[in-house]
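Sanity check

After download, print the first record. It should look like this:
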Amino acid sequence: MTEIEQGTWMIRSARVDELHLLAAIEIDAFWALHEAGAVACEPTSLPLDVLQQSLAEHLLFVAVDGEDQPFGFLAGIWKDGSVHIAEIDVVRCWQKRGVGRRLMDAAIAAARTQRAAGVTLTTDRHVAFNAPFYASAGFRILGDGERPSGLTQILKNEIAHGADPARRVAMALRF
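Expected structure tokens:
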């Protein structure tokens, strides 16, 4: 199990009995993105099969409070030889406390342990807690010719579901 303690909260591997709690975390965090102008659609949550895949691949991490209740999570999946961050969310009342950074640290450590080529994600290029945050962790924006086909397809799907193509980017941290 991965555990990173931080004061009265910690990051650990998720458990199967917690999967049903993650949609509420994702929807709460959605409103911070909405307020920042990154999304204009209605909130959605990851399908259960993606969460189950992430859990099976040992790439699903939760931030839990002192009572072991999840308030943030990161779901990674294998894609094109890298760990792709399918979702990372922290409820609004816990944001700006380093939780997202610690979740990302756990995913990066797991990717290294599992000998991935790196970590990839898609995000909004303008919101401070998106692309600039990931850049501070070593990620860089990938140009059209640099993206693996799976990552290009993820971007296309996001745009087809209403994401602004001028704002959406793919990023990678290569090992």
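If your output differs, re-run the checksum step. Summary of this record's structure: Helices lie at 19-35, 48-56, 99-113, 131-136, 149-160.
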